[in-house]
Amino acid sequence: MIEVVLAETGKLRDMPNGRVYQLPVGGKIVTGQADDFLRLRSGPEILASGLACGWGDYAISFIYLMEQCGFQANLVDSAEISAQSPNRFATAFPAIPW
To answer: What HEC string does the chain produce?
Structure first.
């Protein structure tokens, strides 16, 4: 069952930055770039569009599909945001020109 759900979420395409999209958010059509949709759409909205604007969309879609199969799931979404975060990230990935 997990393989089927992973295959379904694997059909989502990343939304390249710099493009403008018109997508449903909470039943309303919203216009914006990829980052404007972060963590705003429901699982059915993400899957219907076929577009993902980040890992959160993949997770939301996966959890939605698993719940449709009868599983209960919780999404724990977190990020470290501080003045030190950019320095730690750049140190962890020195090959990327920040």
So the answer is: CHHHHHHHHCCCEECCCCCCEEEEECCEEEEECHHHHCCCCCHHHHHHHCEECCHHHHHHHHHHHHHHCCCCCCCCCCCCCCCCHHHHHHHHCCCCCC
90 and 37 Cβ atoms separated by less than 8 Å: no
What single-letter amino acid sits at 55? W
pTM here is 0.76
Residue 52, C-beta contacts closer than 8 angstroms, at least 6 positions apart = 12, 13, 14, 15, 46, 58, 61
* The one-letter amino acid at 61: S
pLDDT tens column, 17-61: 899 999 999 999 999 999 999 889 999 999 999 999 988 999 999
Asked if residue 45 lies in contact with residue 25, where contact means CB atoms within 8 angstroms, the answer is yes
- The pLDDT tens digits for 61-75 are 999 999 999 999 888
